[in-house]
User: What shape does this take?
Amino acid sequence: MTKKPLTNSLEYRNFIRDRDRVLEVLLRKSQLKVSDITRKYLTSILNLMASNYEKLIHIPQSNKHVSFYLDHIFDQWAAEVYREYMLLRKRTYIFTIITDNEAIARALDKEHKYTIENSDLVKALSRSSGSGGQLHKRILLSLTRLKHKVMDAASLGVVLDDSREEFIQRVYDSFPRQKKISNRRILKPQVIQSRESDKRHIAQRLSVGFYDERDWQDIVDEYKNDFITEFNGPEVYFPVEPGYQAHKTAAGDEVIYAWEVERDMTEDFVSAVREGMVDSANKNGIKEFMWIAIVDDKTDDCCLWRDGLTTSEIEKQLNSGKHKDDECRAVTPKAHWGCRCSMAPMTDDLPEYETKKLGDFDSWMNQ
Assistant: This one.
């Protein structure tokens, strides 16, 4: 029989679409938490620099003393950011496994049992970051770069004999900027020609998973509970001019720091989703996937030629040397940093018609 993508199933496609919206809420809340942590530590940094202004201006050697205390601040900062990264990675992977198994069971119209093994979770939590390299080292790299910017700004202020206000503003200007959270989708909706299907009314689970119920409840609570900001930024405590987009947003807008820590978190999130999708399919005996690219003027060549091809077809073309100039060797997304591609599991067990009337995603999640 010819293998078909599960995205041909309306049941599968609708379930994954709604699942992805929940996943993006989890990402947004993690971004807000990391930005809240960032506000706390940027305030501590500016307070440290302001309180040592006289020493830095009149005693150049005092920058070593300041640098020592900065290291302590950045070490604490890195530990808190790492914790949030790991919580998001864990929640994302577990939620993807659970929901993908249900989506596959609905598409195939048959019950399915699965287990999230400890070894699966350890592997997901210990993999490289979505941007490459070990996660904690990636976070430390980002914060080390920021520390250099802060010290460079302070050093320049000393050279130019800044006033206290000028010095504080200069250091503040070295900080990352905030932006309003965008409504842009991170997990792009999958668009594949579908078959006709009846409306679904009855809430029902076709998959039965064996996993820690506390992990599931943690995910549900994180999704449903509102995020409350704990910390004010340095602009609340110091007479500085923001001079960036954040001060133009309306009251109540959600803002995050737009810098490499936030971008790396997004990349790591997408990697966790894709890894969960592959592992879920594998647990259902599915090893083949169709590559789905977002084709527009931003699509690069490595994703464009893979679009619509299956895992084995991509592997065959890579081994043939047909794309010898393509440095990417991926057979499933992501292909590169910032990759927007998705994938669809392929199977020859897809029923000809969808007949069961199953509940929607929210009904399923609230069972």
In short: Confidence is low (pLDDT under 50) at residues 190-203, 245-251. The first strand starts at residue 4 and ends at 5. The chain has eleven helices and seven strands. The chain has one domain: 4-188+205-287.
